[in-house]
Amino acid sequence: MTVKPDWLRVKAPQWQRVGNVKEILRDLNLNTVCEEASCPNIGECFKAGTATFLIMGPACTRACPYCDIDFEKKPQALDPLEPLNLAEAVRRMNLSHVVITSVNRDDLADGGASQFVKCIEEIRKLSPKTTIEVLIPDLCGNWEALNIIIKAKPEVLNHNTETVPRLYKKTRPQGNYQRSLELLQKTRELSAKIYTKSGLMVGLGETEEEVKAVMRDLRKVDCDILTIGQYLQPTAKHLDLIAFITPEQFNLYGEYGKEIGFLQVVSSPLTRSSYHASEVQNLMKKYPK
After folding, report:
1. With CB atoms 3.0 to 4.6 Å apart as the test, which of 65, 78, 100, 180 could cross-link to 239 if both were Cys?
2. What's the domain range around 113?
3. Is residue 218, in this structure, part of any structural domain at all?
4. How many structural domains comprise the chain?
5. Which residues of the chain carry a pLDDT beneath 70?
6. Are the beta carbons of 86 and 59 closer than 8 angstroms?
7. What phi-psi label fits residue 194: left (phi over 0), alpha (psi between -120 and 50 degrees) or beta?
8. DSSP E strand stretches across 2-77
């Protein structure tokens, strides 16, 4: 594995606070993408009492070679208690903003849309002031399933583009770049109130112009928020890391994103899809829909 540059080194977390969050998660039989995907920010987020909940997992029906989420186990039947337990975790952690994501569940007719809705509904009951962000898979292009989620009115709908079109075949072999763009476009057509969001990984061999072209494509479908972060190879078996992108380059991407009209661009080596996601609440006040 390549030695990380200094700007990718993170401080050791205060494990007492991390342990408190983990205890809640274990008590309620919940998964987080923080743990399952080996996020480098787990210490910072758990210390702050936040987590991105991973529903319908931990096994995934796709085998994206960049991702550390398990795809070798057979997906299990949906847990009917998961929405209730997730809502209880949000209440116990006193979250003002929560992010709910999922593994891909291509084995389900609606891709898991109904489970997202149940989670949203249960959170609304116990924590009505909490804002909700859903980070959803592409649902295999099932826009009726997408509409089910949109009708539940999450404040933010996130779907990651992940990489540039040229690298899709090796990075997201079961994904489709145009389908991901269409999902964000359909969301905007179905609801003018929801803030749309997407994310990119860099360091996979893409060029600066290719990244900027994706950013322009996202703006064409009126995507509001963009995150850009460094790809980190989880293990030697995963997709090769091609380059470490400098903080200066991340700053350039951030500036370009603001120039072309994103309401918010979070661009740094350690940025992940839900990193500092609660900052969207300030965005909502500044740019109400």
Report:
1. 65
2. 6-286
3. yes
4. 1
5. 1-2, 9-21, 32-51, 70-72
6. no
7. beta
8. 31-32, 52-55
